[in-house]
Recover the amino acids of this structure.
């Protein structure tokens, strides 16, 4: 019985492989260059982006007085509760991702902390002292996400939630 030429036909297909690679060398070079370029630039673009975000956050949000321009809790406008309040996120000596904060209502100064994540898309506010804090500050004490940083107004919504809460803080 005669054997089929399966191995020979497969080998003939591989015989043409070097000529195919030679003819497609331009495409191979372009793909290799693109992969090399994309992998080599990733670190520098991340550090540049982080640096720009840190500079923006430091220059525009830290050590600056903010007032509440608009606050809404489940569709109810509660802005008038914060008419006499001023808030300041202070820069810490050791980090640009967290620090102390103050809230001034009339003559009383309340203290607490703020923190942010590495891309400055989240703002955690926690006003704690002197105890008891005004009940209105419970609305502010939460994790917020920036929905817009078009200063002088930063627009915030609850982080990781679809709660219909909105907080707009205006820089003075």
């Amino acid at each position: 019985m005669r054997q089929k030429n399966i191995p020979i036909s497969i080998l003939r297909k591989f015989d043409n492989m070097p000529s195919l690679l030679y003819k497609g060398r331009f495409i191979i070079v372009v793909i290799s260059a693109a992969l090399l370029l994309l992998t080599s630039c990733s670190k520098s673009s991340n550090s540049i982006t982080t640096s720009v975000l840190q500079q923006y956050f430091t220059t525009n949000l830290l050590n600056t007085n903010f007032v509440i321009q608009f606050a809404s809790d489940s569709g109810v406008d509660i802005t008038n509760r914060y008419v006499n309040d001023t808030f300041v996120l202070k820069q810490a000596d050791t980090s640009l991702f967290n620090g102390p904060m103050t809230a001034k209502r009339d003559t009383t100064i309340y203290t607490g902390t703020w923190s942010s994540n590495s891309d400055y898309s989240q703002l955690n506010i926690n006003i704690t002292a002197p105890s008891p804090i005004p009940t209105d500050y419970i609305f502010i004490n939460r994790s917020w996400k920036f929905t817009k940083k078009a200063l002088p107004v930063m627009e915030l919504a609850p982080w990781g939630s679809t709660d219909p809460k909105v907080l707009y803080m205006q820089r003075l």
